[in-house]
């Protein structure tokens, strides 16, 4: 049996950020040293350039300046550099663009699925919710004990199922249940757990949404066995739905989820109009690495086109107006053999992923004009 030392959500957060009191981030000297070696430019020149950009409209931090490769003057002129936007501005901008009384409709995953189940938007079925509080979930199976969880897993056709934190982000604590046998259950990457351990130690007091496992379109067999998704950054304008950035997220072998913080995962910059893969990148603390073919499978990536792209955009055009008060949105969409499926919709959406994946600053003329139209005039 697997040994669980802390709940999965906390464990995954520490895997990304380090334990309390510790930091996994490099220091200022490490960032400048890396940028100097990569560009052949001196530390004083780089510091002066960074100081200009941290005061510019994008308000870049030093880690962002280095990770985005903005110091590469062979790639970026001054105007292009100033299009890069700090993720520290995500919430100030989102608060201007969105009616935040609507936030729970996207961030509470059960509530969101309840809202969308009568729409034309394809979403995973809600199989149940694990919640040991006294919250009610009308029309949904609620699981509060280990015995109830065992009985749920024993229902024919339930396995495999996917569990994710109901109010979570970043796939922290997510799990995939593959098979069950008597008093224990097998989770991908975790091994066999008895139900008491799964509920008390792995899940803890965190509410979880349970859904059938989704399966990729055959296109993705060249790259991953785990579910890949497309991230769309969406502007809900008076003229309709606009998609200025699109990113394909590919989980590495052995990784359960596609979030870019997980080691070896890839983020691919897409042409938003066609779904053409323009870039494919992995990242570390100091920057990104570019690939033309998948580093694990060797199969070509750049130059290929994500299948069913018109249907992906069609899903976004159907879904976004339902959440019209949230004028800046993002969606994670799986492309399955049966068509696109909305995995999540978010209020706002981090600026880091599209900039890391594409190598382009988020503040295009269209995006900057949109943010200004929402009342954020500092761009």
Automatic annotation (TrEMBL):
SUPFAM superfamilies on file: Glutathione synthetase ATP-binding domain-like
Supply the InterPro entries for this chain.
RimK-rel_E_lig_ATP-grasp
User: Where is there biased composition of kind Basic and acidic residues?
Assistant: 10-29
Coiled-coil stretches, from where to where? none
Pfam families found in the cross-reference section: ATPgrasp_ST
**Gene3D superfamilies assigned:** ATP-grasp fold, B domain (3.30.470.20)
- Region annotation Disordered: where it falls in the sequence: 1-29
Q: Where is the Alpha-L-glutamate ligase-related protein ATP-grasp domain?
A: 105-365
State what protein this is by name: Sugar-transfer associated ATP-grasp
């Amino acid at each position: 049996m697997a040994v669980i030392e802390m709940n999965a959500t906390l464990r995954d957060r520490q895997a990304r950020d380090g334990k309390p009191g510790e930091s996994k981030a490099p220091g200022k000297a490490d960032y400048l040293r890396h940028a100097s070696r990569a560009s052949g430019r001196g530390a004083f020149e780089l510091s002066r350039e960074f100081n200009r950009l941290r005061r510019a409209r994008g308000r870049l931090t030093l880690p962002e300046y280095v990770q985005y490769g903005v110091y590469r003057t062979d790639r970026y002129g001054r105007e292009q550099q100033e299009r890069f936007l700090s993720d520290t501005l995500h919430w100030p901008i989102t608060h201007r663009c969105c009616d935040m009384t609507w936030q729970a409709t996207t961030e509470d995953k059960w509530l969101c699925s309840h809202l969308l189940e009568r729409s034309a938007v394809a979403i995973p079925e809600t199989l149940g919710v694990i919640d040991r509080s006294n919250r009610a979930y009308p029309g949904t199976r609620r699981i509060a004990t280990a015995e109830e969880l065992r009985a749920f897993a024993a229902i024919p056709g339930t396995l495999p199922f996917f569990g994710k934190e109901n109010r979570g982000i970043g796939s922290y604590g997510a799990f995939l249940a593959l098979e069950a046998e008597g008093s224990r259950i097998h989770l991908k990457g975790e091994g066999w757990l008895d139900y008491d351990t799964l509920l008390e130690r792995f899940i803890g007091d965190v509410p979880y949404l349970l859904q059938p496992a989704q399966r990729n379109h055959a296109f993705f067999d060249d790259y991953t066995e785990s579910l890949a998704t497309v991230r769309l950054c969406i502007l809900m304008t008076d003229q309709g739905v606009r998609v200025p950035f699109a990113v394909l997220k590919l989980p590495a072998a052995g990784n359960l989820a596609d979030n870019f913080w997980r080691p070896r995962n890839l983020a691919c910059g897409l042409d938003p109009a066609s779904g053409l893969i323009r870039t494919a990148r992995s990242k570390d603390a100091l920057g990104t690495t570019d690939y033309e073919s998948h580093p694990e499978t060797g199969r070509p990536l750049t130059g290929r086109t994500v299948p069913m792209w018109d249907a992906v955009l069609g899903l976004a055009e159907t879904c976004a107006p339902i959440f019209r008060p949230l004028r800046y949105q993002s969606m994670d969409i799986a492309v399955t053999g049966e068509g696109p499926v909305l995995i999540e919709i978010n209020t706002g959406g981090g600026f880091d992923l599209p900039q890391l994946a594409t190598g382009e600053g988020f503040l295009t003329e269209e995006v900057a004009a949109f943010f200004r139209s929402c009342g954020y005039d500092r761009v």
